[in-house]
Design a protein that fits this description.
elongated, single chain, five-stranded antiparallel β-sheet, 190 residues
């Protein structure tokens, strides 16, 4: 059965063989995905509309190293802040010299890497997490990657997966640029 799209319908490119129809309806902002009604609960989570009042909807905490359906991997979890940090499946957005790391981030966002456009450069303390959790988030051999802070006017800081501490390299050298994004650490377990 085919229906005519309403003026509030959003058309999305999906892989061949899959159908996706997302529609926002009415003043209450009800969300329909492939004909199933959803609502946003008091915690901001999208839940099936008819299950909104159920008390058995549970939340679960993401785990470091968990692979998500969108192709990202959980790098770290902070339950107190309900915040998780995610990296792409291959961890890096590309290679660049120290002063052009933002070009790699811009490319990842333009390409909507793993369907997300909120990628950013890794902060130094997040680089610590990546190095320390390397074996949990990837099977790749340890590689050198840029951190955010410069080492000096001519040097930039780098880390290597699985190794403690940071080192410096000339800012003109090409190294991998990790891209990360943040999101909730608690997810609805339907």
């Amino acid at each position: 059965m085919t229906t005519e799209p309403s003026q509030n319908a959003i058309n999305v490119q999906v892989p061949e063989g899959f159908d996706l129809r997302v529609e926002f309806m009415g003043a209450g902002g009800q969300l329909c995905i492939n004909g199933q009604a959803y609502a946003v609960n008091e915690m901001g989570l999208v839940v099936p509309a008819n299950d909104q009042q159920k008390s058995n909807l549970a939340q679960r905490v993401l785990e470091v190293g968990q692979r998500l359906r969108d192709g990202t991997v959980v790098l770290s979890v902070d339950i107190d802040k309900n915040e998780a940090l995610f990296v792409p499946e291959k961890i890096f957005g590309g290679k660049a010299n120290f002063d052009h790391q933002n070009d790699v981030v811009a490319f990842a966002n333009r390409a909507a890497l793993h369907c997300h456009t909120d990628w950013r450069r890794i902060a130094d303390h997040e680089g610590d997490k990546l190095a320390n959790n390397w074996a949990k988030v990837t099977t790749q051999d340890p590689e050198w990657f840029w951190l955010a802070a410069p080492g000096s006017i001519h040097l930039g800081r780098v880390r290597r997966g699985g190794e403690p501490g940071w080192f410096t390299c000339y800012r003109s050298e090409l190294h991998l640029v990790p891209v990360v994004r943040s999101g909730p650490a608690l997810v609805l377990d339907i």
